[in-house]
Amino acid sequence: MITILDTIVKHKITEIQLKKEFFPTSYLESSVLFERTCFSLSKNLKNSTSGIIAEHKRRSPSKPNINQNLYVNEVVLGYKKAGACGSSVLTDNSFFGGSLEDLQLARASVNLPLLRKDFTIDEYQILEAKAHGADAILLIAAILTPQQVLNFTKLAHQLGLEVLLEVHNEEELQVNLNAPVQLIGVNNRNLKTFEVSTEISKNLAEKIPEEMVKISESGLKSVNDIIELREFGYRGFLIGETFMKTDNPGASAKKLIDEIESK
Ligand SMILES: O=P(O)(O)OC[C@@H](O)[C@@H](O)c1c[nH]c2ccccc12
After folding, report:
1. Which of ligand 1's atoms lies nearest the C-alpha of 138?
2. Which atom of ligand 1 is closest in space to residue 96's alpha carbon?
3. How many separate domains does the chain show?
4. Is the ipTM here above 0.95?
5. Do residues 206 and 227 lie in contact, with contact meaning Cβ atoms separated by under 8 Å?
6. Which atom of ligand 1 is closest in space to residue 244's alpha carbon?
7. Looking at residue 193, what is its pLDDT?
8. What is the pLDDT of residue 43?
9. φ/ψ (deg, to 5) at 102
10. With a 6 A CB cut-off, is 42 part of the ligand 1 pocket?
11. Pocket of ligand 1, candidates 63, 144, 189, 245: which has the most ligand atoms within 8 Å of its Cβ, to mutate?
12. Average confidence (pLDDT) per 10 residues, the chain, 263 residues
């Protein structure tokens, strides 16, 4: 069966091939942002009482219209004012309606750690992330070999970017345990079926090495979700739709963060 993930990856391969032909890596390396010193998402998470990483997401394959009316710079500024630890910016265009320009605009408007949220399958995208102002990149175990995870992590670290390694089951975690990543994300959403359950985070928690900052991703809605997951050792919570489906994502992030902090 061909899954949506297969389709996305297929598009990415073509997209990157084309980009590589027209924009050599020297073009990316000449960006004024290429030399900047990154902010640390892992440090922010360790020092935070809420652990919220708030995402900018217009749409997704499972939700064709979350919110297409907002300006990315205003959204991330709202997240910053709300007290989020960092922000995640979708840069995939075909399936999520995001762009590298979104990332760049987000960078221009906040001094918050920014995660480039995309389907990384080539080192070229890691250079792109740095050139457009990211502080961290996402690596999705389901679409990479352990060797790729190692190589991509090494390159990201050379560029001063942190890596969030996303897993969805025990096998993906076990085969990548030797990757020296700071952040490990458990996606509650199965990217092949779109099913969402926080049980995934709960079940994998004890298998994740202590030294990694544990992040629970997707489908999180309420203060209770967060409090529960904290008991399993999670320090970070990646939330998109719950905030983005409102007219004022910053205000809804603030409401949740205030609730968490008052518990
Ligand atoms: O909107 P949600 O359910 O709060 O989820 C946010 C984030 O976890 C989700 O966008 C995500 C997690 N991993 C991904 C990989 C690719 C694209 C998107 C994602």
Report:
1. 15
2. 17
3. 1
4. yes
5. no
6. 1
7. 84
8. 98
9. -55, -45
10. no
11. 189
12. 94 97 96 97 97 98 96 98 98 98 98 98 98 98 98 98 98 97 96 91 97 97 98 98 98 98 93
**Each residue of 73-86: pLDDT tens digit?**
999 999 999 999 99
200, 225 contact by CB (below 8 A):
no
Question: How high is the pLDDT of residue 5?
Answer: 94
C-alpha–C-alpha distance, residues 88 and 206, integer Å:
25
Active site residues: 55, 57, 117, 166, 187, 217-218
At 143 the pLDDT is 97
Whether ligand 1 lies within 6 angstroms of the CB of 122 is answered as no
Which CATH number goes with the domain that contains 226?
A: 3.20.20.70
Q: What pLDDT sits at residue 192?
A: 80
Cβ(241) to ligand 1 under 6 A?
yes
DSSP 40-103: -HHHHHHT-SS-EEEEE-S--SS-S-S--SS-HHHHHHHHHHHT-SEEEEE--STTT---HHHH
Range of the structural domain that residue 37 is part of: 4-261
Residue 196: both structure tokens together: 């969402």
Q: Name the residue of 67, 196, 217, 256 whose CB sits within 8 Å of the most ligand 1 atoms, as the mutation to test its pocket.
A: 217
pLDDT of residue 138: 98
Which pLDDT value is given to residue 263?
A: 87
